[in-house]
Amino acid sequence: MNSVIFGQGYVASILNVGLQRIKDGEIGLEGIPLGNSISKMIEDIKIVGAFDLDKKKIGKNLGEITKDYWDKNIKFDDDYIIEEGYRDNRKGGSIDLKEELERLTDIYEKKDAEIFVNTITTESFEPFAEEKEFLRRIKENDFKRISPVQFYFYSVMEYDRPSVFINCIPTMIANDPAMVKIAKERKKVIFGDDGATGATPLTADILEHLRERRRKIMSICQFNIGGNTDFLSLAEPERNISKERTKAGVVKDILGYEVPTHIKPTGYLEPLGDNKFVSMLIPYVSFNEAIDEITVNMRVNDSPALAGNIVDLIRLGEICLKRKEYGAIYPINAFYMKMPGPIEKPAIAKIKAFELLERWLEGDNISGGERKEI
Ligand SMILES: NC(=O)c1ccc[n+]([C@@H]2O[C@H](COP(=O)([O-])OP(=O)(O)OC[C@H]3O[C@@H](n4cnc5c(N)ncnc54)[C@H](O)[C@@H]3O)[C@@H](O)[C@H]2O)c1
Prior knowledge:
Layout: E1 2-6, H1 10-23, E2 46-52, H2 62-66, E3 82-84, H3 97-111, E4 115-118, H4 131-139, H5 148-158, E5 163-167, H6 177-185, E6 188-191, H7 199-212, E7 216-217, E8 220-226, H8 229-233, H9 237-255, E9 261-268, E10 275-285, E11 291-301, H10 302-323, E12 327-328, H11 330-336, H12 350-361
Parallel strand pairs: 1-2, 1-4, 2-3, 4-5, 5-6, 6-12, 8-9
Antiparallel strand pairs: 7-10, 8-10, 10-11
Helix pairs in contact: 1-10, 3-5, 4-6, 7-9, 11-12
The structure holds nicotinamide-adenine-dinucleotide.
């Protein structure tokens, strides 16, 4: 399972560290939903390369990079060198997409990669919807219209072997019909969009609980304050909008009605580091118009939460390739993603999604419901 990472940041580095510690027999499988209960073993995952844009990272070995995120000694089986990624030139500068494509796919070939994990900084983007439009913009070298993730996705589509694109950030890939169509045509698997960790899956399950008891939710307030570079970058409004889109979509899909919400990363506080603070308030109407409310406070180590899910996603990608199932795979996305693609499918509570996932693993053909009209 040769895997390549776009964005060697906190999440990716903790993924490398955790996988190595499992292989070294130092830790258990906590935080990996499927553990070793599936046919593909955790020990067989090989991360063989990564791309980043940070000058302090490019050309350095993995071991040096992870020192910023993990202060104990660790020796990696594959201490790869970080390659230079695709630079965002939308606000100035120039780039030849054809040359970039060749450069990237050459590296994929040399690494014999088949799984691609996207954990770059959350970016602004516009979906394409039409496959022709996306391909035309690429052909015309219109790099101002194409976000880095959309270009990475395209590079994987052009790479000459069946492969998997795991999109852990909000850019619509599994939710963009243009991308899903290309993936199906070119024998590629898409998992996305935006890894579901921390408060969002818990909120989804609380909403399902209240829906089943016919309690009418009045509003949802959810704060997230953290001190890692992800939170720092989300202080930029256009990046935060991308996140808001994926977080708020869950509410409509599960409840079937609109609710006033404030669900977004709300602040950066450096001393909190990776251990973010989450607070939630959900007032609702019960029998005889009684008003109750749920409040939740949590501290969540942000990066390990996503890294544990990626351990499953890499192996599930292998299973999809073996089964020759291509496009956006809903029974997997419904559990692991905030906005599970394809776009016509709803976000559902994670407790329900886990059952879908188990049925899919047993070989059931799962189509999933249609997105509710609001
Ligand atoms: N629980 C979680 O931590 C969680 C959950 C869901 C989604 N995410 C998303 O995962 C992503 C990674 O989170 P993180 O905490 O590792 O962030 P991070 O800031 O530590 O790492 C992001 C890395 O991507 C690099 N990068 C930026 N643009 C790039 C490009 N065009 N090509 C290659 N590399 C590029 C940055 O230099 C940095 O090293 C974020 O977008 C975050 O929103 C995280």
